[in-house]
Design a protein that fits this description.
- The structure is a single chain.
- With 78 residues, the protein is mainly alpha-helical.
- It contains 3 helices and 2 strands; from the N terminus they run H-H-H-E-E.
- It has a two-stranded parallel sheet.
- Helix 1 runs antiparallel to helix 2.
Length: 78
């Protein structure tokens, strides 16, 4: 079973996780940056979070995903 959610459905869910005290985020600053990037690009949230955290840790990211490779610090493997 593959469930596809639209971005307009995912954004409120992520906002709820961020605002609700019942949830504790490991790295709030990185979540905020990834959430902003997600809202302003056509890149998936998990890819945004990977990019934000890898930049902070000075890690190189390589991918076969053309969309993901559009982000700073992400290299497309061909």
């Amino acid at each position: 079973m593959n469930i596809q959610l639209e971005k307009l459905e995912i954004i409120p869910a992520l906002q709820h996780l961020y605002e609700n005290e019942a949830f504790v985020l490991q790295r709030v600053k990185q979540f905020e940056a990834a959430f902003h990037l997600y809202q302003t690009t056509n890149i998936g949230f998990s890819d945004c979070l990977i990019q934000i955290e890898s930049l902070e840790e000075n890690c190189e990211v390589v991918t076969f995903d053309k969309k993901f490779s559009q982000l700073t610090g992400v290299t497309l493997l061909t």
